[in-house]
Amino acid sequence: MAPTASAEPSPPDCPSGYFCAWSGPNQTGQLVVKTAGDWTGTELIQSIFNNGYPYPGADHVDVTINYNGYRDTFCVHHNPGPGQYKGNHAFYTAIIAVKWRGECPYLRKQ
Prior knowledge:
It is a single chain. Helix content is 0%, strand content 54%. With 110 residues, it is mainly beta. The protein has one domain. Strand 1 (18-24) and strand 2 (28-35) form a beta hairpin. The chain starts with 17 loop residues before the first strand and ends in a 9-residue tail after the last strand.
């Protein structure tokens, strides 16, 4: 039997059940997005973390970002994975939407 993944400790100010984004890499700097529901806006970010509860049909998030005019939407699993549940982005990346959803249709490498 394969061992089960254990959740990473919650980042500061991002409790279980929330998706969060920070102005610095590796969940540092100012917390600029903290949401337990869908969110839209424009905030400059460098890192994200999905600390959502495991809940079939509603524990992953589609994250939409804009970097230098390039818009991308990708699915992020909840902590601890499998797959991406946190990540870093280039300086001057803007997060513009977070939408809670069911399973990701694909796994994206970190």
